[in-house]
Design goal:
Blueprint: H1 2-17, H2 19-25, H3 29-37, H4 48-59, H5 65-78, E1 83-93, E2 96-97, E3 100-101, E4 105-112, E5 116-122, E6 128-136, E7 139-141, E8 145-146, E9 149-150, E10 157-160, H6 171-175, H7 183-199, H8 204-210, E11 213-217, E12 226-227, E13 235-239, H9 244-263, E14 278-280, E15 285-287, H10 289-311, H11 317-335, H12 346-361
Parallel strand pairs: 10-11, 11-13
Antiparallel strand pairs: 1-4, 2-3, 3-8, 4-5, 5-6, 6-7, 9-10, 12-13, 14-15
Length: 363
């Protein structure tokens, strides 16, 4: 509910701000989106288009407004909202229709209902591609590139290549995204979710609820990287890796950030009265209390993950012990400024106090 209402609120603000340009380049688009803005398709909310819209509002983006609006229309169209519309763009873009990645285009025309969509795209060389896609259960089928998806345990995590991303104002991050998805990495994802299912089943609904899209970064020899870009609900990124246990950890870690990002749409974790900064061991920097909270929330869940893996008999017990040795001192230091801090709100206390109890129980 929070994700859906957040998406609608951002969409309204975005469409109102750029109404003139969108009506010029996609004159029928707003009439298609209005029923959704009024409450149709309640499950919509977890998509990159809303993060792109937020960034456009705040950085004054003008080159991709119609593209972002069109990505909203393809998103809710794939969820079953009918409509007929067309749009033209300044530069080529690849839109998504469900788990299908459409051809790069500078203009598009769509006519759809809840079961069938006729989609015509024109490339920058005026190459015309006409697609008829049909719905089979929860999936759309058609002659377009299929986005690989992790579906184990009810998880539906789309693995996006670089050309499926806009992420305006994050050019350095997008440049590190893999241009193609290696099927071996999909096997690693599947094995990572199997680890969570087998050894820490409490985290399956945690991951399933909050993670919906991921893009993979080029691997690094010295470290493994992961992150969640604020306001892109349900989207994470992480480094390619050959072992499933670190990937399982990162899924739990980033799901923690996603849950916190979702809750902060309802209110802050602190009231702003604590002007101090505190040392955060994971980043070796002084941080405000809100970021101390974020670190504690994420790494407490990671420590619980490793403790549960060890308790439930995972073969990599030595790695669990190694992670415990790193994380426990970090959390002791992160916990100190949270204890009894009057600046924490109800949301802030709800994020960290149950974790403290869990860490005391699951030792």
């Amino acid at each position: 509910m929070v994700a859906a209402e957040y998406g609608r609120g951002i969409a309204r603000a975005f469409l109102d701000r750029h109404r003139g340009r969108i009506e010029r380049d996609a004159p029928r688009l707003r009439s298609v989106l209005d029923p959704w803005l009024e409450g149709a398709v309640p499950e919509a909310g977890w998509d990159l288009c809303f993060g792109d819209a937020y960034r456009s509002i705040h950085i004054g983006e003008t080159g991709y407004d119609t593209c972002i609006a069109a990505s909203m229309a393809t998103h809710v169209g794939a969820l079953g909202l009918p409509g007929a519309w067309e749009a033209r763009f300044q530069t080529p873009v690849r839109l998504r229709w469900g788990r299908l990645l459409l051809p790069a285009c500078t203009s598009i025309a769509v006519e759809s209902d809840s079961a069938t969509a006729a989609i015509t795209t024109f490339g920058d060389d005026r190459t015309r591609t006409q697609l008829i896609v049909t719905r089979d259960g929860d999936e759309w089928c058609g002659d377009a590139d299929r986005i690989p998806t992790v579906t184990r345990c009810g998880l539906r995590l789309s693995v996006l290549s670089r050309d499926a991303l806009l992420l305006r104002d994050f050019d350095d991050l997008v440049a590190k995204a893999l241009p193609t998805i290696d099927l071996r990495m999909m096997g690693i994802f599947d094995a990572a979710v199997e680890i969570i299912e087998r050894y820490t089943p409490m985290y399956i609904p945690w991951v399933r609820r909050a993670l919906h899209n991921v893009f993979i970064l080029y691997p690094r020899t010295d470290t493994i990287e992961s992150g969640s870009v604020e306001h892109y609900l349900g989207l994470i990124h992480l480094s390619a890796h050959a072992q499933p246990l670190p990937i399982a950890e990162l899924l739990v870690h980033e799901a923690a950030h996603q849950h916190m990002n979702l809750l902060t749409k309802l209110g802050p974790v602190d009231d702003g009265s604590d002007h101090n900064t505190y040392y955060s061991p994971p980043v070796d920097k002084q941080r405000r209390i809100s970021l101390i909270m974020a670190a504690y929330h994420a790494f407490s869940n990671v420590l619980l993950f490793y403790r549960l893996c060890r308790r439930n008999g995972i073969a990599e017990r030595r790695e669990c012990d190694r992670q415990e040795g790193i994380l426990r001192p970090w959390l002791e230091q992160l916990q100190a400024p949270l204890e009894g801090n009057p600046a924490l709100t109800d949301i802030g206390r709800a994020l960290w106090l149950p974790l403290r109890s869990q860490l005391q129980t699951i030792a």
